[in-house]
Amino acid sequence: MKTEFKSGLILPEVERETDYLFLGGQLDRVKILPGGDWRPYLPTDEAQATRVFDPYNCTNMSFNNIVESIQILLMLMANADPDIKLILEQLDCLDENGHPNFSDRALAKMSGTISGRGNSMDAVFDAVRVYGLVGEKFWPKTDQMGQEEFYKEVPQDVKDRALKFLEYFEFGYESLPYANFMVKYPTEASLNEALEYSPLWVCVDGNYEFDEDGRVGMMGKAISYNHATTLVAPGHWVFDSYEPFLKQFVADYKFGYVKSIHIKKKRPMLYKVKNQPALYASSKEEKVMIPFADGVISGGKLFKALYGVDDYKTLPKITVDSVDDLPYPIATYSFLTQ
User: Fold this and answer.
1) Among 210, 232, 265, where does a domain finish?
2) pLDDT for 312 beyond 90
3) CB–CB of 251/234 below 8 Å?
4) Phi and psi dihedrals of 301, rounded to 5?
5) How many Å apart are CA 282 and CA 271, to the nearest integer?
6) Are strands 317-320 and 270-273 parallel, antiparallel or unpaired?
7) 98: left (phi over 0), alpha (psi -120 to 50) or beta
8) What is the DSSP string of 69-93?
9) In what order do the strands lie in the sheet with 288-294?
10) Among 120, 183, 216, 238, which is most exposed with the fewest C-beta within 10 angstroms?
């Protein structure tokens, strides 16, 4: 069986000198999912095309799927980071399933994606670093939306919301090294290792041919790389923007131009309870919230020494409704700032 496909990926003519190589030392990477199987942490299924047209925004959707999967893992893992869910609730980025869901439509427009042509992975990543991400509900796509409506200019208030995301998170990516200088795909071993750090942003031939077992890529070859998607598990499992959303590629399939995405929460993070003056810093080691306020002891200088922050008032804050919503109990001690 063969599917009809419209290309939406623009490949780079040359690799950028600023691209980091996977585990090359430029990014502070740690394994966050032993075994690299992201299938339990996938976001809500979402189709790329509407009933009216295809926006050619596979690069945007596949990138968002990676960020959403990482954040779902960080919310659900055994030693979950309580900041992640609280930040996403504050940014209003969770859907009805409690999954992070960012506007692919907003990112497509802000990254310069063009219907009928698509976009490059580099342009999408650069747009995220500059403009941020915004919840789907603030600039949604509907199933009846046409090209003119989909690619309308993003309103300034939506752009401002997207920028708020960058107050809490920063991004990096690393390109997986090629098997050799003649081919543009990495080895199977490097794919499996990289999956323990993040889902992988990969290029495939989107003219899907399914074998008798329902796997994509009957001969294991990509005639051309024309579609960006998300590799989510060893065994060549892909989470895609076309149905079936979760699909398996054949064992010898060659994924091209593979990138590992790094999303890092900015530190430190402060908490504030609505209508209360106190601020709190979380101590994950002791699992307590440490209150602090202006006073005679220069705790502010401590923040500067530890974190390089000139003014703690500029740090990102998570606002909750009551002390019961703080991730940990309040400590019996505090530190003061002047």
Assistant:
1) 265
2) no
3) no
4) -65, -30
5) 8
6) parallel
7) left
8) HHHHHHHHSTT--HHHHHHHHHHT-
9) 317-320, 270-273, 279-283, 288-294, 335-337
10) 183
Tens of pLDDT, residues 9-63: 988 765 665 577 887 777 788 899 999 999 999 999 999 999 999 999 999 999 9
Pull the structure tokens for residue 154: 């993003």
CA distance 150 to 131: 18
> Same structural domain for residues 288 and 235?
no
- Tokens 């490097």, located at residue: 190
DSSP 141: -
Last-in-domain residue among 247, 265, 283: 265
Which residues share a beta bridge with 162?
A: none
61 with 204, same domain: the answer is yes
Helix, strand, or coil here: 172? strand
Q: What is the pLDDT of residue 194?
A: 95
Measured at the CA of 29, the angle between CA 28 and CA 32, to 5 degrees, comes to 145
**In-domain check, residue 244:** yes
Q: Tell me: do 203 and 230 sit in the same domain.
A: yes
Alpha-carbon gap, residue 231 to 320, rounded angstroms: 36
Shared-domain flag, residues 305 and 211: no
3-state SS assignment for residue 292: strand
Q: Is residue 4 part of a domain?
A: no
Are residues 208 and 229 part of one domain?
Answer: yes
| Domains identified in the chain, total number | 2
| CB 204 within 8 Å of CB 238 | yes
Q: Is the residue at 12 inside a domain? A: no
Are 243 and 113 found together in one domain?
A: yes
Continuous H helices in the chain: 58-76, 82-91, 104-110, 121-131, 147-150, 156-165, 188-194, 299-307
Shared-domain flag, residues 213 and 296: no
Q: Is residue 65 part of a domain?
A: yes
d(CA 314, CA 86): 19
* CA–CA separation, 122 and 108 (whole Å): 13
> Domain range for residue 323?
270-337
- Whether 326 and 211 share a structural domain: no
- Those residues whose C-beta lies under 8 Å from the C-beta of residue 137, and which sit 6 or more positions away, are 92, 95, 101
